[in-house]
Amino acid sequence: MSRGSGTKEGTLRGCEAFCASLHGAQLQPLFDYLPGVYFVAKDRAGRVMMANNVAVQLCGFEREEDMIGKTDYDIFSADRADAYVKDDNHVFETGESVIDHVELAPDPHNSINWFVTTKIPLYSDEGEIVGLACIARNMTSAHEKLRPYMEMNEVLDYVRENYADPIKVEDLAKIMHLSSSQFERSFKKVFKISPTKHILNVRVRAACRLLSTTNDTIASIALEAGFYDHSHFIRNFRKVMGLSPREYREGGREIPW
């Protein structure tokens, strides 16, 4: 495995050929929208050929161009680079992917965080391994981003299990030990919809399942899905789905979401 970067001009030409052989240039913009996910593609010499913004920043660079052509030994300490290269070589030599490997890695602030890393081989049109792609998720930051959603899990479970019964926002607020107004603000901040709209969505989804999988009458489905009368059901079903329950059933629609 090369520890050098080669000339910048040669590296950039190699990068263009590498991306062209993988059709990677068309996909690269997508990788910049993966929240908290580090993405890098390397050639067989271990040189970085592609990197998303998260990877660029995590490795201490300002632009992707500054990272292109670098090897792990140019970026990390020798002991960290040795570990990463060992995994790379396993992929290159066996063609086997490294899946969900848990490891410690530094960030630009010299903190040490847990990462879950996956590496897969990349093949040319001729079937030869020409490099690898690596994604890594920072589990420390991911946990912080997921924390607000996890805190609402008990509320989501309650709605999922009790949608057929009357549900008051005050009852959900009590689960979270909040006032109704505090709970509504918190729920809307996390999910971008009100608790009442979420309950409606869950009930409509349940009705869609019953319309698709049973021969029950629309009136009985309305009650089973938690709507207090037939007209209330039809009005709200149309509001969410854009068509009536009967039209949905006759159209053979699949269960949404």
Automatic annotation (TrEMBL):
Entry superkingdom: Bacteria
Domain named HTH araC/xylS-type: residues: 153-251
Keyword DNA-binding listed: yes
A GO term, aspect molecular function: DNA-binding transcription factor activity
Keyword Transcription: yes
Keywords: DNA-binding, Transcription, Transcription regulation
Coiled coil spans: none
SUPFAM superfamilies with a match to the protein in the record: Homeodomain-like, PYP-like sensor domain (PAS domain)
Protein name: Bifunctional transcriptional activator/DNA repair enzyme AdaA
Organism: Pontiella desulfatans
